[in-house]
Amino acid sequence: MTGIRAGNASVFAAAVAVAGLLALSACSASPALTIGADAPPSVSETPPAAAAPGATGEQFTPVVVSALAEPIPVLGTDERIHLAYELQLTNGSPSKVKVTAVEAGASGTVLQELEGDDLDDVMRVAGTTDGGGLELGPGQNATVWMDATVASDADVPDRIEHTVTVEMPKAQPPLYEKTIEQTTQAVRVDKRDVAVIGPPLTGDNWLDANGCCGLTAHRGAVSPINGTYWAPERWAIDYVKLTPTMKLSDDGARDNARSYPGYGQNVIAVADGPIVAITTDRPEQEPGTAPGPTLTLDEYGGNYVVQDIGGGTYAFYAHLKTGNPFDLQVGQQLTRGDRLGLLGNTGNTDAPHLHFHLMDSPNPLASNGLPFMFDTFTLDGQVTSQAALDAGEQGKAYKVDKADAGERSGQVPLTGDLMTYPGE
């Protein structure tokens, strides 16, 4: 399931994301060295032997690497423990460079290796609308969406080390060769307890149409807000309810919200805790159209509820129907299973669905997404390819593989999972 990639425009794409990866802004750097094809002869002069690179454990690394947030391990429905996080790459040299490989490892064990098409699939250059390829201009940055996995808790490392391989326009010995295999500072793994919650819906045929851990619209929603990058939707799920024939709608009326079986379904609290924010008066959108940039930041979630579920963790339920059918208010204490709204089509959405995620602040966008596990649910099957997801979004029946179906406990759903939740 982790191999599912972001396809073309999705029915549920960028459900809450403001501008996602398109909003990442390139930055320019003032060159401290003149390096590369246009380097003057003075830079090519051989320095004294005592200053040779590596003599003191130092290496020239044209690409600066950092993690947006420390990965938090969580067990997925594929029975693998996922460490989903984002690497930010910035070309600190005045020469164009090409990133050819990114490797994550720990204690000599390779956890994830990306190169060629696999790297191109999950790397996005800032400020581009088509991904941007693998080259970085001077001062330009990019994001690489990582999903390192291990088989068991015992295999979860304390830190993840990275090797980034880049190609320069030409070698500049003895400072560097044309190909530089650079090591970077290790990223600490956050081994906090992951929230175990109940599902936000009840009943059968709930499809995780857009979630973790490939580069879906949710994972790609890294946006610059309040002067920094945030990834609130790292573990977000877009829930759409399928018909008994595994379609979005049996009558084909894709522009009618009531043709979608999930429309108007109860949305319930996943845990105990008070409401800290609520919006109820945003209008319903016509399915098939998404308002996108016509909205303010706060309007992207449409009608929503933010709930404090304790431990610095907040639950976000978005795109709810217009109105306040259960007379909720800020400060009201919710108990797990309480109804808090009806599934709708408000905000930045083009088809009825529930957007759900956990985050580390009460701000739906200026926050980092946190993983979670549902304590109990039934995995009915999986849509195991992007092509099958795309076909379903075009009105065809979703092809569901039932080979791994069964009762699940203490796992997070992945993109393409079809599930039944207790109740009704």
TrEMBL record:
<dbReference type="Pfam" id="PF01551">
    <property type="entry name" value="Peptidase_M23"/>
</dbReference>
<dbReference type="InterPro" id="IPR016047">
    <property type="entry name" value="M23ase_b-sheet_dom"/>
</dbReference>
<feature type="domain" description="M23ase beta-sheet core">
    <location>
        <begin position="263"/>
        <end position="361"/>
    </location>
</feature>
<feature type="signal peptide">
    <location>
        <begin position="1"/>
        <end position="28"/>
    </location>
</feature>
<feature type="region of interest" description="Disordered">
    <location>
        <begin position="404"/>
        <end position="424"/>
    </location>
</feature>
<protein>
    <submittedName>
        <fullName>M23 family metallopeptidase</fullName>
    </submittedName>
</protein>
<dbReference type="InterPro" id="IPR050570">
    <property type="entry name" value="Cell_wall_metabolism_enzyme"/>
</dbReference>
<dbReference type="GO" id="GO:0004222">
    <property type="term" value="F:metalloendopeptidase activity"/>
</dbReference>
<keyword id="KW-0732">Signal</keyword>
<dbReference type="InterPro" id="IPR011055">
    <property type="entry name" value="Dup_hybrid_motif"/>
</dbReference>
